[in-house]
Amino acid sequence: MDVRSRLAANLRRLRGEHGWSQEEYADRAGIHRTYVSDIERGARNPTISVVEKLAVPFAVTASDLLA
């Protein structure tokens, strides 16, 4: 599994565990909802700065999202 697929799977899993919609999660992360959707589908290759933003609402590290 490549890094984008791992990130996408981890985001979907964590978002589901928290019971958040893509829109709610995107608001919490400070990212547009369609960008979150694209990342979860593996259609985007986010920068490390974006990965850090994605990690904050889950209280995990960027490396946790990529593992």
UniProtKB/TrEMBL annotation:
The keyword Coiled coil does not apply. One of its GO terms (cellular component) is cytosol. PANTHER family: HTH-TYPE TRANSCRIPTIONAL REGULATOR, HTH-TYPE TRANSCRIPTIONAL REGULATOR SUTR. This is Transcriptional regulator with XRE-family HTH domain. Residues 11-65 form the HTH cro/C1-type domain. InterPro entries: Cro/C1-type_HTH, Lambda_DNA-bd_dom_sf, TransReg_Diox_bact_type. Transmembrane segments: none annotated. Gene3D superfamilies: lambda repressor-like DNA-binding domains (1.10.260.40). One of its GO terms (molecular function) is DNA binding. The keyword Disulfide bond does not apply. PROSITE patterns: HTH_CROC1 (PS50943). It comes from Sphingomonas aerophila. Pfam families: HTH_3. The lineage of its organism: Bacteria, Pseudomonadati, Pseudomonadota, Alphaproteobacteria, Sphingomonadales. SUPFAM superfamilies: lambda repressor-like DNA-binding domains. Keywords: DNA-binding, Transcription, Transcription regulation.
